[in-house]
Amino acid sequence: MFAVVRTGGKQYRVAPGDKIVVEKLDGNAGDRITLGEVLLAGDGSDLKSTDGLTVAAEIVAQAKADKVTVFKKRRRHNYRRKKGHRQQHTILKIVAIGDQKEQKKAAPKAEAAPAEAPAKAAAAPAKASKAAKPDTSPAKVDAQPTENPAPQDPKAAAAPKAAAKDKPTAETPSTKNAAPAKGGAKKSPKAK
Length: 192
Description:
alpha+beta, 6-stranded antiparallel sheet, 4-stranded antiparallel sheet
């Protein structure tokens, strides 16, 4: 099965297992996102309805493109400007299109499928109500932010606070008599 999805103002033809490079999307490596704007879907030469169809993808990495040099010049005017730019990209691996998953991962789960059949039958009416209202958002991230990346050790958590107390404040003698910052007061032009 294949689908044509739109993300970042561009269209991509995808199938389960494909890796694509798209414009930057929010999320970290390993996060799962849903691409809701499916323009076309089909199996072989048969086209299928795209109502409520979504494409599930996993973020492989956040990367940057090659550097592009922008050079502006106006001849005989001594005008030259040189800038560089690196576009940010997200590398996605397509996990599933609708209910159809990647072929490699679907084979081992075939044994567990009969046990899950009653649960899927109960979930079918819920999916039917979602199909009536298509998702128009471009991408959703299922990632959860971390609360505190610092270690749980109380001594390590207290160490940065102790270091902050040792820093000199603005009222120390070394800065009390210092000159003001540049550009603070403009001088009036001298009389001729």
